[in-house]
Amino acid sequence: MLTVVNEIYQAPCFYNTLMDNCLTGIIRYAKAIPFWQRWVDYRLILPGFFDEVAYGLGVLAGEGALTDLQARALVPTGGYGPDDPAFSVKARRQKVSKD
To answer: Hey, where are the domains in the chain?
Structure first.
């Protein structure tokens, strides 16, 4: 995978939304997902569903249901957005309250 990253650094390339995007690029290296499933499972083409697949394969670590993991992964914005120059610093300082 790092070889591919270095190749892209040397010669940038563009994604193809369906056949070669950030998600499908990672899936190429996922031995737990059979080749045929990569093309017949819509969840592997549409990135918004990949968490379901990763959870089902046991790739996402943590206890509880998928919805619990998703809730714990939320980054509260606290009045700032991704265009804020200090976004990453502020996001790391935030604590998600446990209800």
So the answer is: 1-63
